[in-house]
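Translate sequence into structure tokens.
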Amino acid sequence: MERLTFTVNGINFLPFTAEGGIVIKRNDVDSSDAGEMLDGTLRRARIIMRRTIEVKTRALYTDEIKAVLAAVWPQFFPVEFLDPFEGGVITREFYVSTVPATVSRLKNGKVYWDAVSITMIEQGVPFA
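Result follows.
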């Protein structure tokens, strides 16, 4: 049975994400042998494939944004998610490099943060 999950470093991110806020992409990295040949054909020389997951949260209160940012604080962290490429739930190691957080306003006496955009980059799956 298929299940929707998006857990980052043990934290369920689904309650924090905006509608349509999880975009999973596959990125290939080619060796220096890849490129256009003299006859105009292209040569692929893929050496690694990695996923990029773009996450956009809904607006968050301070305690919520603290939990989200703590989950992506370590250098590498596990992410469990339903992967469209493998057709099932998998767990992979990811990292982030930049996470902006913008204070928006007060609401009901609490600080409200604008939606946070986080780009998570997989360590990668090498090809033999």
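Note: The first strand starts at residue 6 and ends at 8.
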